Amino acid sequence: MANPMYGQNKYDNSNDLIISDNGIAFFKRNVISMGATTAETDLTVAQSGSLINLNSTASQIQVINLPTIQSDDVGTWYEFVITIAGNSGAAGSYTINTGGHATDASGDSATKGYDDMIGTIKVLDNAAYTNADKSNCVPAGGEGTLVLADDTSNAAIAVGSSFTLTAVAESTIGTASANVWLIDGTLMSGDATGFVTGALFTAP
Asked: Which of 14, 106, 118, 148 could form a disulfide with 30 if both were Cys (CB 3.0 to 4.6 A apart)?
């Protein structure tokens, strides 16, 4: 059950208080399942704490857009888990863009990839390890887009990969490439080299 109108806060859509049959209270986490979605998905601050199930059944690249972060929104976070993986034009292809905006500080507008991602995401090769494989990837300045199995020249992610994106600073309106989103997690692939050469993080 969600909070009533007079008690609403930004966590209403991410957790529901559940009373079990034996009277024990617990919170159930909000899960957003991508499924057959074909339109772009704009995540909101109110959905902070949600688990995003990347389980596309649509034969296209699914696009997910993070919100523009205001000062009160710092700490907003989402966890992503890949349960279906594919390549360009097939189910299981995903692109995740940061928010931010050149002029609108209200948080209502977002320019894809305006803010930056920082941090490190681990890459594990679930096939035979080679000397060319890399153990991690770090986004460079200006790279506010995360590409997962977006192109057939990239290594496809493996099911079970997961990562979190946490807003650690507010979006700097009018200044692109603010270090807003901390990424942390692990991606698995049959070819870890492909994640490095295939531009896991890109400019929008």
From this structure: 14
